[in-house]
Design brief:
Blueprint: H1 2-68, H2 75-79, H3 85-96, H4 103-110, H5 119-128, H6 136-149, H7 153-164, H8 176-191, H9 197-214, H10 222-237, H11 242-250, H12 264-306, H13 311-338, H14 354-367, H15 376-383, H16 413-424, H17 455-459, H18 464-479, H19 485-495, H20 501-514, H21 518-529, H22 539-550, H23 555-574, H24 580-595, H25 601-613, H26 618-635, H27 638-657, H28 662-675, H29 690-702, H30 708-716, H31 723-734, H32 744-754, H33 759-778, H34 785-800, H35 806-818, H36 838-850, H37 857-878, H38 895-908, H39 918-932, H40 936-939, H41 958-961, H42 989-998, H43 1022-1044, H44 1058-1062, H45 1067-1090, H46 1097-1101, E1 1103-1111, E2 1118-1126, H47 1130-1176, H48 1198-1202
Antiparallel strand pairs: 1-2
Organism: Zeugodacus cucurbitae (Melon fruit fly)
Coiled coil: 911-938
Biased composition (Polar residues): 1168-1182
Length: 1203
């Protein structure tokens, strides 16, 4: 066995060695393959250069031979052509505005025109025309055709160029751009044989010498010399780029073709002249750098001493920096063409004096070790980017000037103000990207690398597996055809689904391998910029995508930053209160771009400065969103920390000085303390026992509406016999203020579920709740406000789950509005200051929670009495001078508190008529006292208790009122009284309460007596008893007699005399009455027939009979006369209205009577149910507890477990 183990160990070691050897071999092969591929690219580039140069030399030699050996046509040829003045002058005018696009048209026109007499005008027009570099080849072709056609063209053309290129010694060139193009065109004409070689070379040499001699100091004409070397250097000086020479030497001395236009010795003369110019340029470059360094040091010293820099100095320094950068880049290009080394420029060394050293030490001590990320995961997300440049096929990234992307050396508010003023003056339309320049000389390579922003990412190598996968994908993509437009559109659509780091990195790799074209990059930039305004979660991942692409192609990041900046400025100038989501998206996107180094910190701080200039409305939310995203990063970077701190302090000052909305103020404070958390003493974490942590986990973390039953089961399993565990569980269940407000009901449900098993614990929890509320009333501290609100809510929920009686709730309510409350003028209460309205909120919270569940008749009556005192307390607070003015009493009282009070009373008693003043509330209290305990005025003469020490009304227990609220299961919540006060008449509710109270048998008189003293009740005498018996007998007899009487309803307003009721009409009277009635109808019909067509015929036939009572003139005897009146007369209308009112009043009385009857029947039914339940059930607090389940040995008994 030992031998086998040794053999296996050796085999494992050999396998490991073979695997390591294979891995090393694969790495070597991959490196060799990469080197071979790079060498092939270099060879291909050299071959393309040689092929292009050979074609150029060949075409130029062929054109020169045609021009030198041309045969001019005779006079017979010109006689056939058009010599009209109009067409020839038009042709000359076109030459003055010559472009490459007009070449074909001009050649066609020239073939039909005789221009012999216009050669001088043509030569002047061509020499004075303002051409572009792209028009030079077409101009050479046109001049060659003119030279081959007209014999005297070259002579006159040379004379025209001598006038155009004439430069006086010491005179500054007026138009350098035109001279740059003219010098190239003239050199091309000389090398093409259009102009005589000897005379042309003399003129060209003199022009170059004059330009160089005049440009030895400031080198302002450097662009002219550089353009000549770039386009004509190979023919006149034999210049070949250094890069191609190195490739030629690398591949075994591959010959580079040379032009035979000039001899090598003549080329050497011009090359020497250009090298001398380059040496002077290098000296000038060094002197410019020294001046720039001196200016920078001067500005730094000024900043250290004064703390600010003048705008003139800043502008001068910026101009010097721009000129130096331009001169340095041009010198690098000329150095490459002339194959001359560029001198090494000195780097800036910071010479600090003693004071500066001390300041730097203090600054380092103050800042300490700054960490802009906070954790390794965040740092990895923003800094560790996959660098794909070495794996992409055909990738060639030239060096990038790192100074172009550097942040300003000094970030100051003055610099930001200057930048903001410049930007705000430019009226940019929204959502526009910067267009690339069209000038070929200004074109930058498409694949540039932002090495500064991603230096850390570029240094991090990819894992070997990823590198291998990329190499394989690169080979496959190189052999396949490009993806179509549909595939790229699908890629853009799927980009919005990349919601993690791995997906977005894969998308970036796919884009760089398969879709990396200029057109696709523009579409990508637009697609990223137009991401949905609600998808804020995508902004960090899209920014990471752009950062990965920026390693290989910088145009996406540049264009996106420019679009975001212009969109931001447009929103700032617009100043509208619309599109808040779009504004938030823009500022958050800018913040993410800053964290990836794609947007300068200076530009980001300038955006924040713009927002703080007009800190209101949407700009508050934009500033808070920006600081939330990038505030921590900017505050923890050394170069932006000071300015970020200044802006944060300025934002807090604006918040204090401006009357902001509470939501905006909370946002400002939140982001401020997010970036600058307050300095707090670090507290050691409390180490609790495991069982305590488990109890806290169940109550404060796991408890919710869905798992209350599970939490009850878990809480039942703890060891309640252990005093430490049970006391801690009671303590946690008593702290409802540690839960979220919506979960307080769940905690009450939990306590209700435990009440059947742990009665002592539940009782202690309830006692703790009462004690906490009482302590809050005795300690007036704003810090306890949220705690007191939560505990009031908790108490109400305990009542809803039938753990607390209504008497306890009412006692608590009375304590809230009476304990420590002083309603006397001039007496200040520390427990309830006049300007404190918190007790109103506390009472409203308790009423809103459980007031609607006072369903029994007695509890509802008691609550009605409390509402009277509650309204008195409300009006006492509202009428206090603290909340009143002379002209308007309710001017300073908070409107929210007023609405809360009214909503609370409306929820409990929807139809209750509220008092409108403090006087009405006092009158209602006095009236209530007289009705409920009238003996107070007679038997309590020594009573000195006032309203400020109001004691709650003594009430029966919930058991005496009936078990309607507590008779069912403990966890079954109380049913809500839907018609709370809905059936009561608001005008007579207070008056009826006393009558209902008198008719209730369970309500005893001693419940309204005070605790300390009861009034003396005198004994009734014998005479009083006999009087009461006789009075009751008389009332009963009167009632019985009244019942026997038949009362007929009175249908008329005026009582009809008895003689009119009893007298019988004779036949003649009946006939006369009918005849009068018919006659009246006939007359009415006749009048209706003669009336206008607008009256309806039916109105005349509708009449109302009346009886008129008159007195005779002789004896004053009453007589009755009958008559009829039309139904549309005023008399009939008034009669109908009166009858309608009478009928409505009867209906109302009937409806009230029925409602009262139904309510009495419902109360009788409830009382019968309570009586039956009282007989069947035991007392709520004395009911026997259920036997606890004890686990038995052996097989479990299912009946005992589930029953």
């Amino acid at each position: 066995m030992v031998v086998e183990s040794l053999t296996n160990g050796e085999d494992n070691k050999s396998a490991e060695k073979s695997e390591s050897t294979a891995e090393a071999a694969s790495e070597t092969d991959e490196a060799a393959a990469a080197a071979i591929e790079a060498e092939q690219r270099e060879r291909e580039e050299l071959n393309n250069f040689i092929a292009d140069l050979q074609a150029k030399i060949k075409s130029k030699a062929q054109l020169r031979a045609e021009n030198l050996n041309c045969e001019h046509p005779g006079d017979s040829f010109f006689a056939k052509l058009d010599s009209s003045l109009k067409r020839n002058t038009a042709f000359v005018k076109k030459l003055k505005q010559f472009t490459a696009a007009q070449l074909e048209a001009l050649l066609k026109d020239m073939s039909g025109l005789n221009l012999s007499k216009y050669i001088s005008e043509i030569c002047a027009a061509l020499s004075e025309a303002k051409l572009k570099m792209t028009d030079v080849p077409a101009a050479v072709t046109l001049c060659s055709r003119l030279h081959q056609t007209y014999a005297d063209f070259d002579v006159q053309f040379l004379e025209a160029w001598q006038k155009s290129l004439a430069l006086k010694p010491g005179e500054k060139i007026s138009n350098p751009s035109k001279l740059r193009v003219d010098l190239r065109l003239f050199a091309e004409l000389v090398s093409s044989g259009v102009i005589s070689g000897k005379q042309g070379l003399q003129l060209l040499g003199s022009v170059l010498i004059n330009v160089i001699s005049q440009d030895k100091e400031d080198h302002s004409n450097f662009s002219i010399i550089l353009s000549f070397c770039r386009h004509c250097g190979e023919e006149y000086a034999g210049l070949v780029p250094r890069k191609m020479q190195n490739f030629s030497e690398k591949f075994g001395g591959v010959p580079i073709p040379k032009s035979d236009f000039l001899a090598p010795d003549r080329q050497q003369n011009l090359r020497g002249l250009l090298k001398d110019y380059f040496k002077n340029l290098c000296k000038h470059l060094i002197s410019e750098q020294q001046e720039l360094l001196n200016m920078t040091k001067s500005i730094r010293r000024t900043m250290e001493s004064k703390g600010e820099i003048s705008n003139d100095k800043k502008e001068k320094c910026e101009l010097m920096q721009a000129n130096f950068d331009k001169l340095h880049s041009s010198a690098q290009t000329l150095s490459d063409l002339l194959d001359e080394p560029l001198p090494e420029l000195t780097t800036e060394t910071e010479n600090c004096n003693a004071g500066t050293v001390i300041e730097n030490m203090l600054e380092d001590a103050t800042m300490g070790d700054l960490d802009p990320w906070g954790d390794d995961e965040t740092k990895s997300f923003y800094t560790d980017l996959p660098d794909l440049r070495q794996y992409l096929p055909n990738f060639s990234a030239p060096k990038v000037d790192l100074e172009q992307n550097e942040e300003p050396t000094e970030m100051t508010e003055e610099a930001l103000d200057a930048d903001i003023d410049v930007e705000m003056d430019i009226d940019d339309p929204p959502s526009t990207a910067s267009d690339p320049p069209n000038d070929k000389e200004a074109e930058a390579p498409a694949e540039q690398v932002n090495e500064e922003s991603t230096a850390a990412a570029a240094a991090a190598p990819l894992p070997d597996k990823i590198a291998n996968a990329l190499m394989e994908a690169g080979r496959l993509s190189a052999s396949q055809t490009p993806h179509s437009k549909q595939h790229f559109d699908q890629f853009l659509t799927n980009l919005n689904n990349c919601v993690n780091k791995e997906l977005i990195d894969s998308a970036a790799i796919e884009f760089l391998l398969n879709f990396n074209t200029k057109n696709n990059r523009k579409k990508l930039t637009k697609s990223i910029f137009t991401v949905q305004r609600t998808r804020l979660d995508l902004l960090p991942f899209l920014s990471r995508f752009v950062a990965i692409v920026n390693l290989c192609n910088t145009d996406v990041a540049v264009d996106l930053s420019e679009m975001l900046r212009k969109e931001f400025k447009w929103h700032i100038r617009k100043k509208n209160q619309l599109n808040i989501e779009s504004k938030i998206k823009i500022v958050r996107f800018i913040g993410e771009m800053v964290k990836f180094g794609l947007c300068k910190k200076f530009d980001a701080l300038s955006c924040l400065k713009m927002l703080l200039r007009d800190f209101q409305h949407h700009q508050i939310e934009m500033a808070c969103a920006f600081i939330e995203v990038a505030g921590i990063y900017l505050y923890n970077c050394r170069d932006s920390r000071l300015l970020t701190n200044v802006f944060l302090d300025q934002m807090m000052r604006l918040k204090t000085a401006t009357a902001l909305d509470s939501r905006h103020a909370a946002q400002v404070e939140s982001v401020y303390y997010l970036v600058k958390p307050p300095d707090t003493v670090k507290q050691d974490a409390v180490v609790r026992p495991v069982i305590h942590e488990y109890i806290r986990h169940l109550i404060f973390e796991e408890l919710c509406k869905q798992n209350v039953d599970r939490c009850i089961k878990m809480m039942r399993r703890i060891n309640w016999d252990d005093p430490d565990v049970s006391n801690y569980a009671i303590k946690c269940m008593s702290k409802a203020y540690l839960l979220r407000f919506p979960l307080i009901r769940c905690l009450a449900d939990l306590v209700s579920g435990l009440s059947s098993y742990q009665e002592r614990a539940v009782t202690m929890v309830i006692d703790n709740v009462f004690e906490d509320i009482r302590a809050g009333l005795e300690i007036h501290s704003p810090k306890l406000a949220q705690r007191r609100i939560a505990m009031a809510k908790y108490l109400g929920e305990l009542y809803n789950y039938k753990l607390v009686e209504s008497t306890n709730i009412l006692n608590t309510l009375y304590s809230i509005i009476s304990l420590g409350v002083s309603t006397e003028d001039g007496v200040y209460s520390e427990l309830d200051p006049p300007d404190s309205l918190f007790r109103l909120k506390l009472a409203c919270m308790l009423l809103d929670t459980c007031g609607q569940y006072f369903t029994s008749s007695m509890s509802r009556k008691k609550l009605d009495y409390f509402l009277v005192f509650f309204q008195h307390y409300y009006w006492y607070k509202k009428s206090h001078p603290v909340f009143s003015r002379v002209e308007n009493t309710a001017d300073l009282f908070p409107i929210l508190v007023d609405h809360m009070y009214r909503d609370c009373v409306a929820n409990v008693r929807p139809k209750l008529k509220l008092y409108k003043s403090l006087e009405q509330a006092k009158e209602a209290i006095e009236k209530l006292k007289e009705e409920l305990y009238p003996q107070l005025k007679e038997g309590m003469k020594v009573q000195t208790e006032t309203d400020n020490n109001l004691e709650p009304i003594r009430e029966d227990s919930e058991f005496d009122d009936g078990l309607s609220d507590d008779s069912s299961s403990e966890r079954e919540p109380r049913t809500r009284n839907h018609d709370a006060g809905g059936d009561d008449d608001p005008n007579t509710e207070d008056a009826n309460n006393a009558n209902e109270l008198a008719n209730t048998t369970d309500w005893t008189e001693n419940e309204f007596m005070l605790e300390d003293c009861e009034p003396h009740v005198s004994e009734k005498t014998k005479e009083d008893l006999e009087f009461e018996q006789m009075f009751e007998k008389m009332a009963a007899d009167s009632y019985q007699e009244r019942i026997k009487e038949t009362v007929k309803p009175n249908t008329k307003d005026i009582p009809v005399p008895m003689m009119a009721r009893t007298s019988k009409k004779s036949y003649e009277q009946i006939t006369t009455a009918s005849g009068n009635q018919s006659g009246g109808e006939k007359e009415a019909a006749k009048s209706n027939a003669n009336s206008s067509a607008g009256n309806s015929a039916g109105n005349g036939g509708s009449v109302v009979p009346f009886v008129l009572m008159v007195r005779s003139g002789k004896g004053g005897k009453q007589q009755f006369k009958q008559f009829v009146a039309p139904s549309d007369s005023q008399l009939a209308i008034n009669l109908k209205l009166q009858e309608e009112k009478t009928r409505e009043e009867k209906e109302r009385v009937k409806r009230l009577t029925l409602n009262i009857t139904e309510r009495i029947e419902e109360e009788d039914y409830q009382e019968s149910l309570m009586q039956s339940q009282r007989n069947m059930s035991q007392n709520h607090y004395q009911r026997p507890s259920k036997p606890k389940f004890r686990h038995q040995k052996g097989a479990p008994d299912a009946d005992l477990i589930f029953n």
